[in-house]
Design brief:
This protein is α+β, with helices and mostly antiparallel strands. Helices cover 36% and strands 17% of the residues.
Length: 605
Amino acid sequence: MIIRNYSARKNVILGIFLTIGLIFVVKLFLIQVINTSYKLSSQNNVLRYVTQYPARGMVYDRNGDLLVYNEAAYDLMIIPGQVKELDTLELAGLLGLDRHQFRERFVKARRYSRFRPSVFLEQVAREDYNVIIEKMYRFKGFYFQPRTLRKYPRPIAAHFLGDIGEVNQTDIDRSPYYRSGDYIGKSGIEKFYETELRGRKGMKVIMVDVYNREKGSFQDGIYDTIPENGKSIVLGIDGDLQEYGELLMRGKTGSIVAIDPTSGEILAMVTSPSYDPNLLVGRIRGQNFNKLLNDPLKPLINRAVAGTYPPGSTFKMFNALVALQEGAITENTFFSCQGKGSLPIKCTHSHASPLALKEAIEHSCNPYFWNTFRSTLTNPKYGNQKKAYENWYQTMMRFGLGHRFDTDIPFETPGNIPSVEYFDKLYRKSWNALTVRSLSIGQGEMLLTPLQLANLAAMVGNSGYYFVPHLMREIEDDTIYSAKLRKKIESGIDKRHFEVIREAMLDVFEGSHGTARRYSLPQIMAAGKTGTVQNPHGKDHSMFIAFAPYQEPVIAIAVVVENAGYGSTWAAPIASLMMELYITDTITRPLLEQRIFEGILNIEQ
């Protein structure tokens, strides 16, 4: 008989039980004493992860005046899975919603997720928040999340400042930064500089009890991350000049663009009719956008960069520059004019004949510039007219025409400079200078934007070059970026030829027969050119380009007033007043100013 000793096994089994018991004791100690998160669960408390949205960067004008800032607002968030014993009527009443609207929002949130927070009611104003927050403990599953709304202290510059709105699915798919309920720049500089303006989100972990009341930060905030505010930006815009331009254009349809020729910074970009940018802020955004969209005067269109027009007589000088550079004419080349009897293009002015280039610009003589254009295209150095036209076309491209500048200017259109290929297709390759003669006086297929016209004025003011137009002047803590914006473009035309054009434009203001002589600036020499642009849909457009002071320009400007007649009637005085305000910070011609203020030209027919 074998006798086995089981005492050793007994000790092993006892040791196993003791070890398991010790593990349970230690675990219970950790759960009940050390780890507070289990304690929270035992007390039916939950953690709420609240996104900390950064303050969006502010926007200033070139003088440090505030154009856009932030105002406190709140989004009401919902976690559908936590909603219990809800008094729907009471909460709907507090939020200003009817029962149908409330249910629609609740169903939408539940479809999104039962356990993830989503926006139930966006952008609650601070005044409403103060009333509702006192009763939030009754509504489990709901809580407020701080946000900010854009605010515009001056109701100006809506088209290029832009606006912000809630992200759509395309925005979310494009960038992992965004989640449902986030806001993003939708247009203007808000969209172009979204990355700089938005900042970086943070996260706050908050303890709440069964009644949805906040109990404080979880573990003293060791898991919280701090949001990083967006960078503020400074635009080249002069807020006072922008506001004045919008006042001058009130009751009119058209635009004003003013550029600093020394930098390419846009000083003013006025489009009329316009609207108050505060209309597209908060929950009223959608409703007001639809009203603006359906307005017959089309206030949402930025005519300064999306409106295209034949440049008319304002373009004659640039045809002359090409002819001078190619040796097709000189400043002393004379052409005759028979006034309204001239062929193939008649003249609209009575003046001495024959005349040279400077006098032709001063009198805006159509036949002179037709002969100039013809001399350019029949220049024997090119062998045929199409090669000469291609050279003319490439020069227009260097002038900044027929293409976008592709900087930070929103919704910019390229305009149109017809190519050789275009005319070959249109006329089956059988065309010449006579066929396209309308281009000689800035008509026909040629279309320019007011921005391009202002840039042409800046190029003449600089005697042959320009800086690419842009809105931004400076980004906070980024001086390198500002330097990148100053991109200089040479026209390819000798400076001496620009001096001839500059002198002729000076005579438009200062000459005895100048078409803008009545609007010469007090104590300031300015140069300009009027344009009366044919309009097949109604009355001619009034157009004017200019720069001042003459010797060292600090402002170049283009004004277009639609259906307003002669360039000297409306566009020239508006440009004159704008230049005077910018250079002298005052207006010395109140009667002229009053006439412009009282001019109402965009009454719907």
